[in-house]
């Protein structure tokens, strides 16, 4: 698939100006460095994790630096130095620091001739680029109404790059289409409401002949294309917004991990998951969640001793169900943080940016809290 390079560059330069509902104080990480030299391959998240307990709050370190309006103007080779202004930690790039105790020296304007595409991105674009124009969550009925792949010029049942496929609709000449395979159907676990149908991009192509049965020549393939797959125009609204503002999630009820994109049992750092909230719930690209799993319910037996779930008898379970005094809910367990990067009506895609424990389906997603008290 062809993705305009300008869009990719914009995505790589996503602005990381955050707003917070928590206290203004930034908590520095124990053992943090006093300075840091930016390396090729670094991301804003990587650098922030070296200084702060809460990496996603790192852009606030630049608030008093007028020379650098946005963190995306950091490049490999830049040296960052930690200073304190009014008692608050700030990061400045060497050459931009101002010391009020020293005489002011006027310097002629200087510049660096560096390609903008070399700026340090918010997160590693390679991790999510694959998903920017691929998997979608759409209404099941809507997907079934989209034009369908009937067959191809090749006698094979599986079609790849260079093959021409037949579509049961009159399509505009030269229009680019994505060819989608039907994936999993998602439901809200609590209400049973249908959330949507996963549509997995198999290939992309361009209309080379229009008619009652149109022809599409496949330009890229992510998996083999088959009869029965559906086609949808490749439009700009399927791309993630070029800029977003990271901020803590604000939902009336917690979101949950709906599914793991890779279909594995557990997900870890840098894996992608679906969550059960979307634009209808106020979720947007850049929202940050903390991931938690429900704490265990401990039952007190007849001897007054706590019994974990793995050791409970049927009698213990019965007594716990009829007496709240016999069942004690343990605190939820923190598992990591997630950054939403693509949003649909009732679902979203998120990148797991940090983990303490593996993430599973049905884990809870709530507003992030400081980890300072956790000793991190």
Task: Explain what this protein looks like in three dimensions.
- Strands 4, 5, 6, 7, 8, 9 and 10 form a seven-stranded antiparallel β-sheet that branches.
- The chain is mainly beta and about 375 residues long.
- The N terminus and C terminus are likely disordered.
- It is flat and about 75 Å long.
- The two termini are about 40 Å apart.
- The chain has three domains: about 100 residues, no CATH class; about 100 residues, Thrombin, subunit H; about 90 residues, Thrombin, subunit H.
- The protein is about 10% helix and about 30% strand.
- The chain contains five helices and 20 strands.
Quick structural gist:
This protein is mostly beta strands.
* Biggest beta sheet summary: 7 strands, antiparallel
Question: Count of DSSP helices?
Answer: 5
Query: Mind telling me the C-alpha Rg?
Result: 25 Å
| Run of helices and strands | HEHEEHEHEEEEEEEEEEEEHEEEE
Kindly provide the name of the CATH class of the largest domain.
Mainly Beta
Q: What is the molecular shape?
A: flat
**CATH fold description of the largest domain:** Thrombin, subunit H
Helix-and-strand structural type: mainly beta
**CATH architectural group of the largest domain:** Beta Barrel
Poorly predicted runs are: 1-24, 64-69, 98-117, 237-243, 370-376
The termini sit apart by 41 Å
The share of residues in helices is: 10-25%
The total count of strands amounts to: 20
The domain count comes to 3
Mean pLDDT across every amino acid position: 77
Approximately what portion of the residues adopt beta-strand conformation?
Answer: 25-35%
């Amino acid at each position: 698939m062809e993705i305009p390079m300008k869009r990719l560059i914009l995505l790589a330069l996503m602005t990381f100006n955050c707003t917070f509902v928590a206290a203004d104080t930034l908590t520095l990480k124990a053992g943090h460095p006093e300075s840091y030299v930016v390396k090729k391959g670094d991301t804003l998240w990587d650098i922030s994790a070296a200084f702060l307990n809460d990496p996603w709050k790192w852009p606030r370190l630049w608030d008093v630096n007028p020379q650098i309006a946005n963190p995306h103007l950091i490049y490999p080779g830049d040296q960052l130095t930690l200073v304190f202004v009014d008692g608050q930690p700030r990061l400045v790039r060497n050459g931009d620091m101002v010391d009020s105790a020293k005489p002011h020296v006027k310097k002629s304007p200087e510049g660096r001739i560096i390609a903008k595409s070399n700026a340090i991105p918010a997160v590693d674009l390679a991790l999510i680029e694959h998903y920017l124009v691929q998997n979608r969550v759409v209404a099941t009925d809507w997907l079934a109404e989209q034009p369908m792949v009937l067959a191809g010029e090749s006698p094979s049942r599986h079609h790849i790059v260079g093959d021409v496929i037949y579509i049961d609709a009159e399509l505009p000449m030269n229009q680019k289409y994505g060819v989608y395979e039907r994936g999993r159907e998602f439901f809200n676990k609590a209400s049973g409401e249908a959330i949507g149908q996963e549509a997995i991009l198999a290939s992309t192509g361009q209309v080379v002949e229009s008619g009652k049965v149109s022809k599409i020549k496949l330009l890229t393939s992510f998996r083999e294309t088959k009869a029965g797959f559906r086609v949808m125009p490749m439009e700009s609204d399927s791309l993630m917004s070029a800029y977003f503002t990271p901020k803590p999630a604000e939902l009336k009820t917690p979101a949950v991990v709906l599914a793991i994109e890779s279909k594995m049992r557990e997900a870890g750092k840098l894996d992608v998951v679906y969550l059960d909230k979307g634009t209808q719930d106020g979720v947007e690209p850049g929202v940050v969640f903390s991931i938690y799993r429900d704490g265990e319910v401990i039952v007190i037996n007849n001897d007054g001793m706590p019994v974990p779930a793995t050791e409970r008898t049927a009698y213990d379970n019965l007594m716990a169900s009829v007496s709240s005094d016999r069942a004690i809910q343990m605190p939820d367990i923190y598992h990591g943080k997630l950054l939403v990067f693509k949003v649909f009506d009732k679902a979203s895609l998120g990148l797991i940016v940090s983990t303490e424990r593996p993430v599973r389906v049905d884990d809870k997603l709530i507003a992030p809290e400081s980890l300072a008290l956790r000793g991190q």
